[in-house]
Amino acid sequence: MAAGIDTRPRAPQLKRVSARTSALGQPSRLATRGRRGPGCAPLLLLLLLLELVWESASESPWGLPVVADGPASLAKVMMAELANLKLENKPWPGGTHSLRYHYLALSEPGPGLPQFLAVGYVDDHPFIRYDSRVGRAEPQARWMAPVDAQYWETETQKQRAWAEVQQVETWTVMGYRNHTSGMHSTQRMFGCNIQEDGRSSSFWQFGFDGQDHLSLDLETLSWVSAEPMAMRTKRWWELERCYAEYDKAYLEGLCLTSLRRYLELGGQHLTRKEPPTVYVTRHSTEDRGTTLRCWALGFYPRDISLRWWLGEEELALETEHVETRPSGDGTYQMWAAVRVPAGEEAGYTCHVQHSGLSHTLTVAWEPPSRHGLIAMVISSILLLLAVGVVILTKRFLQARNKESYKQAPGDYGTGGQRKPQVSPSIAEGP
């Protein structure tokens, strides 16, 4: 977008939210788009102050450094504060953990839908939610109960500001695609991870209508377009390098610090270790082949390793994996499969590593034993007998009920009319 030119579609909802004034009365990012250097300060003053300034004290409730003079501080000073929060590679005893946020903005309100929704997750467990229909940040996990009211007020203000920012981004991308009306959406996803050995990683992604649009390369501080239509958005955001610098500073600093704080709050609920239940199943394929599938169920935390071996050789290339997925009960599940020649299943073993296990677990497929087959046959016969008894009993009861409704036998005259039964004493007369 050329400097000073507003290409947003003139949708009616633009009148509801000012494109140049944020929810906190500060200039929004759209007002500074197209300018370099100091032009980034309003956005950073808005978002960084909300991240860093909790109270006018030298230390926040989370133990994070703050800028005492607040709005008088320059944006670059606050960027340095964020950068200083970058953690050393200190081991974390609870395995791999993650903090991520999902933002969703709609171009226009829909029935039963929020125009902006933000949800925060720690290890796939939602802990905070902001719904524009409610207008405030709310806890989603019981372990967030000790957090004071100031935290929720700050999160509410921050999400209101992000709602405005992402709405403007939604309308702008719509303009790039010549969409002037209709329901469209943008998605922002970002977060960080801490591994058990202290190493960390992070990500930042932006989508439009459910499809990948842009991502941030944190090494080069460059925006990577996922589709040709994203090039205009890429050029738009490249005009303000400080936007990428802010994201990098947050993801590699405050995000990791916040994750550790949330893990401390969550306590045993988030740092517990539940070992997996592992077993191997055998499946026949259409081409008369055989597949062995190694299942790992009910484990926590998420990080796990499933590998297939043939003797002393690891079958890394031959193994098919599925991504680890939530089980719905606070634990995770995963499987890994390998194709094997029929009749040679005994030589294959599944090796499982997880923080809840004291050693590598080795599991092989066990064919049903002879006693097991006999037990299965007997069980099947007993089941069939039980089903047969139930069916015969039901038919007998139905037949008896029908018999009870039949009319008693009697004499019938001409025309099929039944003759009335006469008492013998009356028929004989005097």
From TrEMBL:
InterPro entries: Ig-like_dom, Ig-like_dom_sf, Ig-like_fold, Ig/MHC_CS, Ig_C1-set, MHC_class-I_related, MHC_I-like_Ag-recog, MHC_I-like_Ag-recog_sf. GO terms for biological process: antigen processing and presentation of peptide antigen via MHC class I; immune response. Gene3D superfamilies: Immunoglobulins, MHC class I-like antigen recognition-like. It is a single-pass membrane protein. Keywords: Glycoprotein, Immunity, Membrane, MHC I, Transmembrane, Transmembrane helix. SMART domains: IGc1. It is found in: Membrane. Residues 1-35, 406-430 are annotated as: Disordered. Residues 276-364 form the Ig-like domain. GO terms for cellular component: external side of plasma membrane; extracellular space; lumenal side of endoplasmic reticulum membrane; MHC class I protein complex; phagocytic vesicle membrane. The chain crosses the membrane at residues 372-392. Belongs to the MHC class I family. This is H-2 class I histocompatibility antigen, Q10 alpha chain-like isoform X1. It comes from Pteropus vampyrus. The lineage of its organism: Eukaryota, Metazoa, Chordata, Craniata, Vertebrata. The gene is LOC105293481.
